[in-house]
Amino acid sequence: MRELLLSGVPRRALVLLAALLAGLIAFPLLVNDYFVTVVILILYFAYVGQAWNIMMGFAGQLSLGHALYVGLGAYAAAALYVHFGISPWIGLGASIVVSAAAGAVIGFLAFRFGVAGVYFAILTIAFGEFARIGFDHWRWVGGSAGFFLPVSNYTRNDLLYLRGSPTMFYYLFLGMTVAAFVLCHALLRSRAGYYWQAIRESPEAAQALGINIFRYKMYAVTLSAAMTSLGGVLFAFYYNNLFPEQVFHISRSIELILGPIIGGIGTLFGPIVGAFLLTALAESLHEVMAAIGVDVPGIKQVFYGFCLLLVVMFLPDGVWPPIARRLGLGRTPARRGED
Amino acid sequence: VPADIYLNVAVSGLLTGLVYGLMALGLSVIFGVVRVVNFAHGEMMTIAMYIAVALFGTYKLDPLVMMVPIAAVLFVLGYLMQRGLISPFINRPEHSQFMLLVAIALIMVNILLIIFGPDAQSVQTSYSYDSFMMGRLIVDATKVYAGAAAVAVAAALFAFFRFTLVGKAIRACADNYAGALVVGLNVKSLYALTFGIGAACVGAAGAMMAVLVDVTPPLGPAYTLLAFVIVITGGLGSMPGALLGGLLIGVTEALGGLFFTPSAKSMFAFGLLVLVLLFRPQGILGKRPS
What we know:
The complex is a heterodimer.
Chain A: H1 2-6, H2 11-30, H3 33-58, H4 67-84, H5 88-112, H6 117-136, E1 147-148, H7 166-189, H8 191-201, H9 203-208, H10 213-239, E2 241-242, H11 244-247, H12 250-263, H13 270-291, H14 299-314, H15 320-327
Helix pairs in contact in A: 3-7, 3-10, 3-12, 3-13, 4-5, 4-10, 5-10, 7-8, 7-10, 8-10, 12-13
Chain B: H1 2-34, H2 41-59, H3 63-86, H4 94-116, E1 131-134, E2 137-140, H5 141-163, H6 165-175, H7 177-182, H8 187-212, H9 219-234, H10 239-259, H11 265-279
Antiparallel strand pairs in B: 1-2
């Protein structure tokens, strides 16, 4: 285990990571609630971005429907809590099962029938849209009118039912993001990780080497779906309201993958750096526009669009790889594309 | 008599489907030749629809007459997009092209939102409430005109690719990229031309659609998805396939809306897509990739 996690990691990287983690742990003690909520958003996007990255960055399967797994996870745990009073810690089991099953079904259908590339991406969109419209008409979870978790004044943090202050959610999101980071780091160095990267670079060559590409692609999609659903569970209990039009919408899926793409697909820090940049950008833009009194819907998205345009045009590998080289953090395990 | 209702709805779906088909034809032409999936297709459609609405609102110009200039505007837009933005991405990986077009789509849809606002806008022509009666069949006049216009544009496009030298040259690029270069075709400029033609199709389709439905900015992503569903159902890269897919989806949506609720109609389109992807991944009229 120690070998899997630590061998070949530059000491400098470990020191930087430890410092970053210490800073993040101390963070809520130093700032007000507003900054805590902003960092929660960053951690959320870093987490789901990391989960998506397993499919796209590691195994090379472009999913444009990850909002499906967020939504299924969110609705499953929330419905169990609202209708039966079941703790989200048990509910998340249901979330994982439902999402992993959905991922497995999509993966099975696609990989079995040779649906790949753009076709696969569109299939994932189709399932996401299917779920969006389906949940819009599903009365038991509120339909298009939305599904609400009871909100009351938090006198104390109830960890069992995940009712509490932003600070409590901050540490939960932080723990999840750190766990996902460590897991992905280990995965990249495991047999499965090498198989995935082989499949990503050339499915034919991987198959010729005797890798069961169907099985390993299935592992990637199921794991990615299961991890994403956990993000959905916390999302539901943190925001307390779910609308199919928002949760399952294609723009959520795109928002979720912007982080890893801007940060650097296939890198461990890419999703984190990308989530930080995008959220910081969005928040400062929001503040600036509020300060100068401009309130035009859509202008934020236009700005987003231009940032994305610039990154894909001029930094096709993302923001993180050049930074990593500059910091002397040695090899980045899963760089995409040619050098 | 219920049977009449089904027939009426199916015919009306069929006519809308012709317009869908023309929209999808644009996507199919672009993919078939340039090999880039235009993820901003529906957004370009809404741009055309808003131009039609604006021209009608200010000058009372009929969208079906304005179809040609609107298609010309979209042609220029598509040509410039290919020349300026997409051309450097031709040899990049798929996800990279995808992100580029998603960025373009995001910018387009939100600029429309800023200019025209979120409220639905519509075109009320003098014939908006007319209808034709053939026996027990009643169809809206707008749908008949729009469907006929779609057929005319599609026929013109088929003729262009079949009989003109430029059309043949474009097909040559699609058939054999290296061969096209060897015989001295200017592939870069033909690609831009193709993107322009695809955009012109969607421009014409947008002008027709403007008389059929209310326009809002979120229609953009919805039409992008619909165009994908149609071309994949019909066969990506196949021109007759796009038209056939449009008809199928038009009828499926119309009947789905009748049997269940109209808000669930696109579920049937997605259901059809999933079935096609599973049992005939190359689409109904598509060729199996070699």
